[in-house]
Amino acid sequence: MAEITASLVKELRDKTGAGMMDCKKALAETNGDIEGAVDWLRKKGLAAAAKKSGRVAAEGLVAVATSGTAGAVVEVNAETDFVARNDKFQGFAAKAAEIALTTGDVEGLKAAAYPGASHTVQDKLTSLIATVGENMNLRRATKLQVPAGVVASYIHTAIAPGLGKIGVLVALESTGDAAKLTELGKQIAMHVAAARPDALDVADVDVSALEREKSVLAEQARASGKPESIIEKMVEGRLRKYYEEVCLLEQTYVIDGESKVRAVVEKVAKELGAPIKVAGFVRYALGEGIEKAESDFAAEVAAAAGQSQG
Question: Which of 7, 43, 200, 300 makes a 20 to 30 Å CA pair with 68?
């Protein structure tokens, strides 16, 4: 059997763009024959998928799944919104969220076995890429769990059960009635979808973000010409306003427009006769943070016209 060297694997990767392990397997299957390995990868749909991997995938779906005290949310990206309406894509996203209930993070999810198949979740996605013809990416996954209580979910403008463009999980730790906890959790999840908090409470605010905010508020206060002792009090007052904007428990509940979220939780806890702790939340908005390529259609047409005249 031919020796599968690192340089041979690199050459095949450069030719196909396929993953290192796939290239090693292809070379092993073809006894080190590069062209044969290329064909092997193409037959498996791996080379075709790799060629699409450079294209921006910022559309797709956010999927949620819950099971009692656990919940998971995943984001699966594709190039166009059209694919989000594809039954196979929707089925994959929903199944990925279910699997994430046991695997947790995205790397564990990718490596997990796909139900009813002899391959992994990532392999299933690669096969889907070859079938549908668009670049796709299993971008991220988060799992929340509590020892007792519920993890509730909410999908904003769902296109199918558990599937949409904004997905939220809220974990409530309590020994209270599960049905009432789920109802509260869903309402808080709806609040999170609309209010977009950055932290659970004051203690969870990112330190660097807090220092940056303090610096800005201090400079604004100094512009008033007030003495430093007064400026300090002004900053403290404005920080309270900042916490009300970014901390979930300090925010005004969007559903009644009056109460603090903290007060709403305390009220339900009294009704249930059991303490309720908001143990965590996560909010996924489809494509957030992905740079989309901006296309200047007029410039493209002009360039094409110039080339045709050349």
Answer: 200
Number of residues written out for the chain: 310
CA distances from 4 to 19, 23, 40 (A): 15, 10, 16
Residue 167 · residue 63 · CB < 8 Å: yes
Closest to 142 measured CA to CA, from 88, 195, 66, 247: 66
Which amino acid is it at 108? G
What is the residue-averaged pLDDT of the chain?
86
Q: Of 22, 11, 46, 205, nearest to 125 (Cα)?
A: 46
The residue among 200 and 223 whose pLDDT is bigger is: 200
From CA 188, how far away is CA 249, in angstroms rounded?
Answer: 10
151/145 Cα distance (integer angstroms): 7
Quick one: how far is CA 69 from the chain centroid?
Answer: 20
Spacing of C-alpha 23 from chain mean position = 29
Q: Residues 129-150: pLDDT tens digits?
A: 888 878 888 999 999 999 999 9
Give the span between the Cα atoms of 33 and 10, in whole angstroms: 13
Confidence of residue 51 (pLDDT cuts 50, 70, 90): low
**Final residue of a domain: which of 145, 165, 186?**
145
The answer to whether residues 67 and 45 belong to one domain is no
Which token pair is 233?
């009090």
pTM of this structure: 0.73
SS3 147: coil
Region 254-280 average pLDDT: 96
Structural domain contains residue 172 = no
The number of helix segments (H) and strand segments (E) in the chain equals 13, 7
In a domain, 121, yes or no: yes
pLDDT average, residue stretch 85-108? 94
- Which domain does 40 fall in, by range? 6-52
Domain count, the chain: 3
